Amino acid sequence: MACDKKRGVDAALTGLLGTTVGALAGFAGAWLAQRAQTRMQREERTHQEQVRWLADKKPLFRDLLVVFRRWREALLDPDTGADDLDGLRRSALKWSVEASLIASEPVRLALDEVRAAFEAMETGLRDGRVQVEESGTAARLSSGLSALEDAMRAELKEILLSPRRRTRPERRVRATDPRTRTGGLAGNSGLG
Q1: Distances (CA, A) of 129 to 6, 93, 162
Q2: Stretch 38-62: mean pLDDT, rounded?
Q3: What are the backbone dihedrals phi and psi of residue 177, each rounded to the nearest 5 degrees, phi first?
Q4: Fewest Cβ atoms closer than 10 Å to its Cβ: which of 65, 79, 136, 172?
């Protein structure tokens, strides 16, 4: 009888231990699943925010480049009046400040370079010290505008190409149905 009692206690302890290990494994699995889901949601929000910024950045970048190019043409045209130059300068400053608020670091650095080139070009023209073409400021401005456009395009392209982890097929696990030996996507029940 004592032997039966000991076997019963051993079985009860084994059952209790198995239940505890099973519960811990269940909690650990639920915790890992929750972390993965939270990470996916965070990445999805980040992607959605980038796409939203894309809708704001495209027209802003376009308008900024148009104003900068008009300003450059006005500076090089001797018939442009001071009022026209002031209007273009104010417009360019407004657009460049707006762009610098939402742009990446490379775009902000290129913006600073272009603004510095415009200031140097205006100063040279105002002072009448040297011809703009001879001083190299026109070439500096043209290369700055090209660098700015390249930085803007790279930023927009990066946003467009940023992956959404939830939809990447290489992340999905293939499972094999042992009854039919056919592969299917794990978690894909075929319903809706």
Answers
A1: 106, 25, 49
A2: 81
A3: -80, 115
A4: 79
* Spatial separation of the C-alpha atoms in residues 123 and 28, rounded to whole Å: 67
Alpha carbon distance 95, 31 (integer Å)? 47
Question: Which residues span the domain enclosing 87?
Answer: 49-162
With beta carbons less than 8 A apart as the criterion, state whether 89 and 72 touch: no
Q: CATH number for the domain including 131?
A: 1.20.120
Residue pair 142/133 in contact by the 8 Å Cβ criterion: no
57 domain-assigned: yes
Residue 3's pLDDT band (cuts 50, 70, 90):
low
Question: Model's pTM, two decimal places?
Answer: 0.55
Burial class (CB in 10 A: 0-12, 13-18, 19+), 91: middle
Q: At what angle do helices 2-76 and 105-127 cross, to 10 degrees?
A: 10
pLDDT of residue 33: 92
